[in-house]
Amino acid sequence: MSRKMIFLTLLVLSVFACSNDDDNTMDPIGVTPLDPATAPKVSVDRFSTAAGTLMVRTSANGLPEANEPVNFDSGEPFITQGLAPDGSIVRYYNFDVQPTEPAPIYLFFDQQGNAVENQINLIDVIPGDVGYNDFWQVNRVTVSSDYVANTISNLDDLLMSGFDIEETTTIVNCPVVPQGSTASMRVGSEDTGLHMGWYKDQVVFYFSFFEKILDGGTSNMVPLSPIFVSFNVNPDPNNSDSGPASGFVTEMGTSQTHNVIATLPQDSDYSPLWNVNVYDNADFELVNDLSSAGMANILATGVATVNCPVVFME
Question: Is there a single domain that holds both residue 161 and residue 142?
Answer without folding.
Answer: yes
